């Protein structure tokens, strides 16, 4: 789901639509299965146990966020450190996301789905937390790029397995809203895979591309925010920082050009 994986370079050959997006469909399926399992467990687990599960996911999320963020140390260009670029991306991205009210819009979408499908309780919180958790991370980015460029869905299949297990834990606490995060996976990973299919010569090996490294590092900082939210340590508006994922590689290109 979040771990940064090194994958070997694969010869680039034309791939069909299914091959480009197969990893995304597998990911959607595992999240739905995990949600179903979580719903079954939720009926038999007391609240205290559900809370422990959520805290466990939160602790692991913090660790994975730190692991991801360490890729910033590899994304250095000239005299500009990757951490400085990440700071600028997070600040400007957060300001832009707050101005666009991305967090509010995501919650509005969650509330609409909750009303449309007669969800209950923490439906929206589960939808938002799971959507951010499953979409932000190097495995989502690298896996989608690999799938779209070469048709190799190995990384996304591993991510799908991890997401399915996380969905069980999250659903036991938040409910069926977690399952609707599969819609965001379908749009985000599927769209990224299709886009990557148009760029094979530009990004033949996404695991070592510095633009991907800095984007993954910024994503790691956002994952840390999700972990803090799950543990009720703070209320970080993670969705507001989403533009930082686009700004980070742009800042890297600008810094490289200037130096």
From TrEMBL:
A Pfam family that the UniProt record links to this protein: DUF554
Transmembrane segment boundaries: 53-71, 83-102, 123-145, 165-188, 209-230, 236-255
Organism of derivation: Stenomitos frigidus ULC18
Keyword Transmembrane helix: yes
Coiled coil, from the record: none
Name the record gives this protein: DUF554 domain-containing protein
Lineage, uppermost ranks: Bacteria, Bacillati, Cyanobacteriota, Cyanophyceae, Leptolyngbyales
UniProt keyword annotation of Methyltransferase present: no
UniProt KW keywords: Membrane, Transmembrane, Transmembrane helix
């Amino acid at each position: 789901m979040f771990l940064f994986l090194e994958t070997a370079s694969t010869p680039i050959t034309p791939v069909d639509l299914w091959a480009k997006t197969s990893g995304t469909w597998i990911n959607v399926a595992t999240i739905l299965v995990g949600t179903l399992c979580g719903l079954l467990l939720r009926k038999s687990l007391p609240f205290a146990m559900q809370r422990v599960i959520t805290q466990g996911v939160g602790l692991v999320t913090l660790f994975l966020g730190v692991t991801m963020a360490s890729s910033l140390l590899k994304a250095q260009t000239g005299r500009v450190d990757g951490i400085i670029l990440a700071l600028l991306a997070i600040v400007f991205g957060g300001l832009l996301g707050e101005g666009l009210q991305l967090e509010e819009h995501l919650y509005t979408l969650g509330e609409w789905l909750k009303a449309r499908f007669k969800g209950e309780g923490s439906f929206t919180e589960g939808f938002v937390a799971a959507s951010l958790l499953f979409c932000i991370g190097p495995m989502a980015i690298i896996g989608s790029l690999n799938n779209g460029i070469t048709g190799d869905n190995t990384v996304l299949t591993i991510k799908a397995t991890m997401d399915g297990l996380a969905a069980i834990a999250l659903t036991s606490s938040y409910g069926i809203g977690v399952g609707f995060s599969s819609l965001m996976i379908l749009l985000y990973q599927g769209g990224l895979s299709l886009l990557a299919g148009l760029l094979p010569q530009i990004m033949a090996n996404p695991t070592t591309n510095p633009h991907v490294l800095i984007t993954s590092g910024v994503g790691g900082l956002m994952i840390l925010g999700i972990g803090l939210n799950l543990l009720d340590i703070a209320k970080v508006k993670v969705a507001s920082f989403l533009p930082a994922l686009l700004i980070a590689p742009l800042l890297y290109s600008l810094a490289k050009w200037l130096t």
